[in-house]
Input
Amino acid sequence: MDDIKKIVIISDGTGKTARRLMDAVLAQYVRKKVEYTVVRTYQGVRDTEQCDKILKQIENDYLIVFSIISGDLAQYLHEHLHKRNILHLNVLRPVVETMSKFLGMHPDFEPGILQKIDDRYYKKIDAIGYTVEHDDGRGMLIEEADVVLLGLSRTCKTPISMYLACNHGVKVANIPIFTSTSMESYILTKLEPIDKNKVICLTMQPDTLLQVRQERSYHLAHSANGHAELEKYSDINEIREELRFSRHLFAKGDWRIIDVTRRAIEEISSEILDMLYNNHQ
Output
């Protein structure tokens, strides 16, 4: 154990920045016969009192790798480590100094900001995975949805769902509606435990929905055998009946409705976010 090189990481955030850089450098030594270990990572170090407690715990043969954005606190650590002749490295200093010269301005000096960025990134990744799994009525964890979209075929459920997940980290489940008594009972039962403010219903003007379905039918006709079903799918009378059925269902559930006729996905998504946000005021 005495031959193992010991490293301590000190960070005003999570320590991931220092650890990533250290791992990248140490990867160049994998073929060498040297052993090392990270003894400990100190996270959320924001003041000199915390630094003093850490300094009492480290030994003189350690390597101290720290990522402290505050110039005063970084200097405090440097001076005390230098007095004890402890080898140390501030991984942020050379990058920040060079970037400041290049940009002609100082940084915000906000501790832990990279972790905030990482958290937003992973939130979006989780939301995308959830939304894909719960597209078109699939998925078993609908109670975890941030929003549930209901709508007839071709009312933009999937594009809106993916836009919300990819751009805003919102977990979306979407459920298609078909005209049948069993469908009505199924949806009402399925959504009974869900907060009704999370359920957003999508509708569209019949003529526009007809046009969208006709375009869809044209592509399906080359591969589908159910010609009669396709005719029904793009029949204006059937569409009006489906819209009537959906309005009746939405009213029974007491859910909010958005008309998506000839509207951009971004605009619709913004309205949905406003609904969700205003509900939590």
Observations:
- The first helix runs from residue 16 to 26.
- Strands lie at 5-11, 36-42, 63-67, 88-90, 147-151, 172-176, 199-203, 256-259.
- The domain at 119-279 is CATH 3.40.50 (Rossmann fold).
- The chain has two domains: 5-111, 119-279.
